[in-house]
Design a protein that fits this description.
Chain A: It holds the Pfam family oligo_HPY. Chain A: It is found in: Cell membrane. Chain A: Belongs to the ABC transporter superfamily. Chain A: Keywords: ATP-binding, Cell membrane, Membrane, Nucleotide-binding, Transport. Chain A: InterPro entries: AAA+_ATPase, ABC_Ni/Peptide_Import, ABC_transporter-like_ATP-bd, ABC_transporter-like_CS, Oligopep_ABC_C, P-loop_NTPase. The structure holds two protein chains of two kinds. Chain A is about 35% helix and about 25% strand. Chain A is α/β, with parallel strands linked by helices. Chain A has a single domain, classed as P-loop containing nucleotide triphosphate hydrolases (Rossmann fold, 3-Layer(aba) Sandwich). In chain A, α8 links the parallel β7 and β8. Chain B is an all-alpha fold. Chain B has a domain of about 210 residues: MetI-like fold, CATH 1.10.3720. Chain B contains twelve helices and no strands. In chain B, α10 crosses α11. Chain B is flat, with a radius of gyration of 24 Å. In chain B, about 30% of the residues are buried. Classes of the chains: A alpha/beta, B mainly alpha. At the A-B interface, α2, α4 and α7 of A face α8 and α9 of B.
Chain lengths: ~325, ~300
C-alpha cells in the first residue's frame, strides 16, 4: 500500500503569557492511500493541533511547528513557503471543521462559497464552476441543488450545512481529507447520515481520510486504523480490530471501558480517574502515569519505548517491556 | 419587501409630522417676531405686516397653513429677504451642503475602514497603536476646534490651503478634513474591533483551508461581515455630520444651507425655519431608511420583507 502522508516527530508549541504550551510532543504516524485513520483522544490532547499542523493552519504567533516533518507525496509540508502551501490547501489536502454553523460565511451564498475554491485553483469559467458545484451538491446528497446554490447558510439545517462543508472540501478532488470532529456538533441521527456519506465518498473518490474525534462510536463505524493520542503523543496505534479487541495501553483500555456497549448488560461504565497532565510542563516519563492503575516506578521517569505487537499495532507502554512482563508473571504466581 | 417599504414610508411621514408640529410649537413659543428688529415701525404697519404673513390668525389656522405649505412644498418668500423664496434658498444652499456632506462621508468611511482593517491585521503592533491613538484624538477633538487649528496651521501659517470659502477643490480639503475626522475615528475603532472578532471565526479558517489568498479572505470574507456594525452606526454618523455642517460651514464661510438654518432662527424668519427644518429632517429620515435597506442587502439573515409582514 502506498503511503500518502507520513508525519515524523512532530512538535507544536504555543507561546502564551503563562509560558510555552507543548501541545504536540513528537507525533509519528502515517496514512495509506484510500484508508481512514482515526485520531482519538480527549479534549486538549493535541489532535486538532496535529491536523491544523498538517494544513499549516496553526496561527503563528502564538503557535509554531518547532520540530519534525510532515511528508505529503514526497514533499515536506513544514518546509514549504506559504504561497506553495496555499496551492496545496483545498487542492491536495482539504479540511472539514467541527461546527457547520460557524464554518460557513453567513453573508455569502452557498454557491459563491462552493465555487470560490475551484475558481481559485483552476482556470475555469463560471459556468464550469457552477456545474462542478452542482455535481458536488449531488454527490453529498442535497436536493434541488440549482435553487440551493443561490441560498445563504442560514437557510440550511445543521446536517445540510455539514454536507455543504464536505462538498466544499471535496470540490477540488483532494487526495487527503482531514475531518476535525465532523459529527460532534450534529444530532445523532444526522451523525449517522454524515458518516455514511463519508463512506460513500471514499468509495466514489478514493480519498484518504484523517478523522479527528473523541467519539469511539464514530471511529468504530468508519475508521480502518486508529491512533490514540494522549497529552500530545500517540500512545497506541493499530487497526480498528486491534484497538477495539486487543487494546494494550491502559489508557486505551480505559477509554473503551468508558463507552457504553449494547452487547454487555449490567456492567457499570468505568471512567478514567484524574485529569490529563499540564502541558506547560509535561512529565518526563509516560504522561498517563498519574492516572494509570498499573503505574510502575520507571513510568514516571522515562518515556516508554515503542513496542510492536504486530506490523500494524504499536504501543508506548512500559508494561510491554520483557522485565515488566516477568514481574507481573512473578506476582501472579505469588498470589 | 414592497410592503416593508410602504410601511416604512408611512412611519416616515408620521415622524415628519411630529417634527413639523414640534417645530411649530417651538417657533410660536419663542418670544419675538420677525419684525421686532425693525425700527420705527408703528403699530399699524406692524399689524399690516402680520396680517400679510397671516401671523394675526389664531395658532390653529397658522398651523394648518404651515401644513399646507409643506404638503405643496411651497414655503413662500422669506420674511427677511422678500426677494427670494425659501425654495430658492434651499436650491442654492443644498447642493453645496450636500457636496460637503457626501464627500465627508466618503472620506470618513474609506479612511476609517482602511485604518481599522490595518489596525486589526497588525493587531498589537506599532501600526495598531498609532492608528488607535490617532482615532482617540479624532474622537476627542471637537470639529470646530480642529477646524480653527487647521486654518491657523495649514492656511494661515503654512499657506497651503485657502482659509475659507467654497470655490475650488483646494477650498474643500480643510472643511472636509475637519468634518470627517470624528466620524472616521469612530468608524476606524469599530472596524478594528469587529474585524478582530471576525478574523477568529471558523469561516475565515475555512477560507484559508480552501487555499484562498490572504487579501481575498480579508476583502471577500472578513470585511463584509466586519462592516455590518459600521453600517448600523452610519445612521447616527449621518446625523452628526449633518449637524456638523452648520458649524463647519459657518467657520469656513461655505455658502451652504447651514447659514440659512441658523440665521432664520435668530431672525424668527418663520417660512425659512419651517422650510429648512422640513428639508433637513426629511433628508435625514430618508438617509436612515436607506441605511436600513443597505443593512438588509449586506446581511442576508435580516429578512426585510418578514419584518413588514407581521
Amino acid at each position: 500500500m502506498d503511503t500518502i502522508l507520513e508525519v515524523k516527530n512532530l512538535h507544536v508549541t504555543f507561546s502564551t503569557y503563562g509560558g510555552t504550551i507543548k501541545a504536540v510532543r513528537g507525533v509519528d504516524f502515517h496514512l495509506n492511500k484510500g484508508e481512514t485513520l482515526a485520531i482519538v483522544g480527549e479534549s486538549g490532547c493535541g489532535k486538532s493541533v496535529t491536523s491544523n499542523a498538517i494544513m499549516r493552519l496553526i496561527p503563528d504567533p502564538p503557535g509554531k511547528i518547532t520540530n519534525g516533518t510532515i511528508v505529503f507525496k514526497d514533499k515536506d509540508l513544514t518546509a514549504l513557503p506559504e504561497k506553495t502551501m496555499r496551492s496545496i490547501r483545498g487542492v491536495d489536502i482539504s479540511m472539514i471543521f467541527q461546527d457547520p454553523m460557524t464554518a460557513l460565511n453567513p453573508t455569502l451564498t452557498i454557491g459563491t462559497q462552493l465555487m470560490e475554491g475551484v475558481r481559485q485553483h483552476h482556470r475555469i469559467t463560471s459556468d464550469q464552476a457552477k456545474s462542478k458545484a452542482l455535481e458536488m451538491m449531488h454527490l453529498v446528497g442535497i436536493p434541488n441543488p440549482t435553487e440551493r446554490l443561490k441560498q445563504y447558510p442560514h437557510q440550511f439545517s445543521g446536517g445540510m450545512r455539514q454536507r455543504i462543508v464536505i462538498a466544499m472540501a471535496l470540490i477540488c478532488e483532494p487526495e487527503l481529507l482531514i475531518a476535525d470532529e465532523p459529527t460532534t456538533a450534529l444530532d445523532v441521527t444526522i451523525q449517522a447520515q454524515i458518516l455514511e456519506l463519508f463512506d460513500e465518498i471514499q468509495e466514489a473518490t478514493g480519498v484518504s481520510i484523517i478523522l479527528i474525534t473523541h467519539d469511539l462510536g464514530v471511529v468504530a463505524k468508519i475508521a480502518d486504523r486508529i491512533a490514540v493520542m494522549y497529552a500530545g503523543k500517540i500512545i497506541e496505534v493499530g487497526t480498528k480490530r486491534e484497538i477495539f479487541y486487543d487494546p494494550q495501553h491502559p489508557y486505551t483500555k480505559g477509554l473503551l471501558k468508558s463507552v457504553p456497549r449494547l452487547d454487555v448488560t449490567g456492567e457499570k461504565l468505568v471512567p478514567i480517574d484524574g485529569t490529563p497532565p499540564d502541558l506547560f510542563s509535561p512529565p518526563k516519563g509516560c504522561p498517563f502515569t498519574a492516572r494509570c492503575p498499573f503505574a510502575m516506578e520507571v513510568c514516571d521517569k522515562v518515556y516508554p519505548v515503542t513496542t510492536e505487537q504486530s506490523d500494524t499495532h504499536k504501543v508506548d507502554c512500559w508494561l510491554q517491556d520483557e522485565r515488566a512482563k516477568q514481574l507481573l508473571a512473578a506476582s501472579a504466581i505469588k498470589q | 419587501m414592497l410592503r416593508y417599504i410602504l410601511k416604512r414610508l408611512m412611519i416616515m411621514l408620521v415622524t415628519l409630522w411630529i417634527i413639523v408640529t414640534l417645530t411649530f410649537i417651538l417657533m410660536v413659543s419663542i418670544p419675538g417676531s420677525p419684525f421686532n428688529s425693525e425700527r420705527g415701525t408703528n403699530e399699524a404697519v406692524q399689524a399690516n405686516l402680520e396680517a400679510h404673513y397671516n401671523l394675526d390668525e389664531p395658532y390653529i389656522i397658522q398651523y394648518l397653513l404651515y401644513l399646507k405649505s409643506i404638503v405643496t412644498f411651497d414655503f413662500g418668500p422669506s420674511i427677511k429677504q422678500p426677494s427670494q423664496t425659501v425654495n430658492d434658498m434651499l436650491g442654492r444652499g443644498f447642493p453645496i451642503s450636500f457636496e460637503l456632506g457626501i464627500m465627508t462621508i466618503i472620506v470618513a468611511v474609506i479612511s476609517g475602514v482602511t485604518l481599522g482593517v490595518f489596525a486589526a491585521l497588525k493587531h498589537n503592533n506599532v501600526i495598531d497603536y498609532l492608528a488607535m491613538g490617532f482615532a482617540v484624538l479624532g474622537i476627542s477633538i471637537p470639529n470646530f476646534v480642529l477646524a480653527t487649528l487647521l486654518i491657523q496651521q495649514l492656511a494661515v501659517n503654512l499657506e497651503i490651503f485657502p482659509v475659507a470659502r467654497w470655490l475650488s477643490p483646494a477650498h474643500m480639503i480643510l472643511p472636509i478634513t475637519a468634518l470627517a475626522t470624528g466620524p472616521m475615528a469612530i468608524i476606524a475603532r469599530l472596524t478594528r474591533s469587529t474585524m478582530l472578532e471576525v478574523l477568529t471565526q471558523d469561516y475565515i479558517k475555512m477560507a484559508r483551508a480552501k487555499g484562498l489568498s490572504p487579501w481575498k479572505i480579508i476583502i471577500k470574507h472578513a470585511l463584509k461581515n466586519a462592516l455590518l456594525p459600521v453600517v448600523t452606526i452610519m445612521g447616527t454618523l449621518l446625523a452628526s455630520i449633518l449637524t456638523g455642517t452648520f458649524v463647519i460651514e459657518k467657520i469656513f464661510a461655505v455658502p451652504g444651507m447651514g447659514k440659512y438654518f441658523v440665521e432664520s432662527i435668530n431672525q424668527r424668519d418663520y417660512p425659512v425655519i419651517m422650510g429648512t427644518t422640513v428639508f433637513y429632517s426629511s433628508f435625514l429620515i430618508i438617509m436612515l431608511f436607506l441605511v436600513d435597506i443597505a443593512y438588509g442587502i449586506l446581511d442576508p439573515r435580516i429578512k426585510i420583507h418578514k419584518k413588514g409582514g407581521e
